[in-house]
Design brief:
Elements lengths: L12 E6 L10 H23 L10 E3 L7 H14 L1 E8 L5 H4 L7 E6 L7 H14 L4 E4 L14 H18 L5 E5 L13 H8 L2 E5 L2 H8 L5 H14 L1 E2 L12 H23 L17 E6 L13 H7 L3 E2 L2 E2 L5 E2 L4 H14 L4 E9 L1 H8 L5 H5 L3 E5 L29 H9 L2 E4 L10 E4 L7 E10 L3 E11 L4 H8 L8 E6 L12 H7 L4 E6 L3 H11 L3 E3 L21 H12 L8
Parallel strand pairs: 1-2, 1-3, 3-4, 4-5, 6-7, 6-9, 8-15, 9-12, 18-21
Antiparallel strand pairs: 10-11, 13-14, 13-20, 14-19, 15-16, 17-18, 17-20, 18-19
Helix pairs in contact: 1-5, 5-17, 7-9, 8-9, 9-10
GO molecular function: arabinose isomerase activity; L-fucose isomerase activity; manganese ion binding
GO biological process, one term: L-fucose catabolic process
EC number: 5.3.1.25
Amino acid sequence: MADQRKLVGGHPVIGIRPVIDGRKGPLDVRGALEEQTMSMAKRAKELFEDKLFYADGSKVKVVISDCTIGRVRESALCAEQFKREGVDITLTVTPCWCYGSETMDMDPNTIKGVWGLNATERPGAVYLASVLATHAQKGLPAFGIYGRDVQDADDENIPADVEEMLLRFGRASIAAASLRGLSYLQIGSVTMGIGGSIMDQDFLESYLGMRVESVDEVEVLRRMDEGIYDHEEFERALAWTKANCKEGFDKNPDWIQKDRKTKDEQWEFTVKMYLIIKDLMRGNEKLADKFPEEALGHNAICGGFQGQRQWTDHWPNCDYPEAFLSTSFDYDGKREPYILATENDILNGLCMLFEKQLTGRSAMFSDVRTYWSGDSVKRVTGYEIEGHAKEADGFLHLINSGASALDFSGVCTGADGKPEIKKWWEITEEDQKKILEATTWNPADNGYFRGGGYSSRFLTATEMPVTMLRLNLVKGLGPFLQIAEGWTVALPDQVNEILWKRTDYTWPCTWFAPRVDHVPGSAFCTAYDVMKNWGANHGSTVYGHVGADLITMASILRIPVAMHNIPSEKIYRPAVWNAFGTEDKEGADFRACNAFGPLYKKYR
């Protein structure tokens, strides 16, 4: 049975604007260019529709202007059409010279790109340079797309470098625009004084165009007590959980372990929590007859649960809901991850959201807990680290209290036979069985979680390319991102056991080696330097090296990136960023983001 809870919104449309030389005259300059110009638009549309998708797995919607745009009236006609079509992102394409200020996208609310054909028959590159300068002069940043090699006028191919820029612009723009109007739902408030769980509503509204919804944790209890959930769904979910979620060992001393009756009751409690939080986030039409208000939900694309300590000192923890809501499937089969941040770390939950919107894959919430140097590993275990870990002189221990997405057990493989965290719509029933088999649910540490509950436990025992992300807020500076590409690390079983037992052995465990540069003073000199420069106690990790897409998305949202290890040739931001400096790209990013400000309104 498919998940019926749906969001309202989150499907931004791309509009293609074919612009053209407006001159008619005796030689009909415009007429000679109509077919070539429209052909560029159609090729871009086909590329986007073939390669881009929304986070729910559906194909991206792309529309082309009904007419080519040579003068301002046609710009207005296109704007009216795009308004009807709900266009949030525009790509202007041309092979020739056009009248820049008359043909450009002047809507301050759209995300803009311009593709000028690199050919010698007509000056498409001249128009590109001119109109990008006009965009900059008017304070409307736009991405410039221009191929390295000259093409013939009748060449219908999109060169590889142009395709890469088009797709990076498209992916990042869709991810950024897909957040508009949707909600972050915080259940509870600040967890144990963690700064990331201090809600800054102005930030979400100004930079992301999102709204903030808040409910007290007691709402979960009210819905349990009053039976405000789908009882048939609960019975189905509980039966599936009992059949598929293996209970692991209980690490607690005998005298504080929960008895069997209590443990069974806590399974029922946590499954009800899961259903109720799903309903709170996205509503549930099955509740409409008896509970029409509760059936609506908060239209939340992500959220967080406070938990510690007011909740967990008495009630079972939220690890089961947090883990499964961030996973690519549940008792109803595969479905888009909801995203529920542990400890209501809003800033880390938003990182998970960015990663999921860009890739369609689940993202892993973790503590960035410990740096293990090569010497420390050898001293404790006798093992000499290898591969990426050796290159980085160690690795980071990513671990959290049972709330990581189960996909990161790393047991699925892609078409090439290599380990992969799949896009959620590619998850098979066999994949789900493997993930569940690799995971146990261990009774919670009753010293930390007096109310009990269960923690998911797995080991990421394979090497995969991953990207770790963190969003931070600094008073007087504002938001910034940190990005670290690297690999999960596979260690021998005996080494895993020794190192894992140095912390909580019942929590999911991932070892991470960032890609380093060995440059003294660099934040990526070694894995130790990454740990030392990381901005908070949490990080969000996604499969693949997607840092370049994250940098492009951040520039759209006007969030600077303070630390990253992305090759310079992969960095792609609006053309006007170069006006803020070409030597110090990181500093230029901060200056540009500050100058243009958030997309939606002034921050503070």
